[in-house]
Amino acid sequence: MNLFRDLGKRAEKLKQQVAASDEKTYRCADCGTEVRTDREACPDCGGDDLRRVQ
C-alpha cells in the first residue's frame, strides 16, 4: 500500500507543478516587474500597462 500512496503523492505534486506553469505572466511596461494575472496594476510602481510575457 505504501507504493500506491507514494505514487499518489508524486502524481499530485506533478499535477500542481503543471497547473502552476500554466499561469499567465505579465510584465509591467513602466518598471519591468513580472506580475501574475490576478493583478490589475503593478505592485511595485502602480502602473496599469501590463503586457503578457511570451
Describe the structure.
By secondary structure, this protein is of the alpha+beta class. The chain has one helix and three strands. The chain has a domain at 24-54. Helices cover 37% and strands 19% of the residues. Strands 2-1-3 form a three-stranded antiparallel β-sheet, with no helix packed on it. Strand 1 (25-28) and strand 2 form a beta hairpin. The radius of gyration is 17 Å and the shape is rod-shaped. The model has no long low-confidence stretch (mean pLDDT 85). It comes from Halorussus aquaticus. This is Zinc ribbon domain-containing protein.
| Uncertain stretches | none
* Rg measurement, Å: 17 Å
Question: What is the overall pLDDT average?
Answer: 85
What is the total tally of β strands?
Answer: 3
Strand order across the largest sheet: 2-1-3
Q: Termini, distance in Å?
A: 43 Å
Structural class: alpha+beta
Helices and strands, in order, run as HEEE
Approximate strand percentage: 15-25%
Number of helices: 1
Q: Helix proportion of residues, in percent?
A: 25-40%
Largest sheet: 3 strands, antiparallel
The shape is rod-shaped
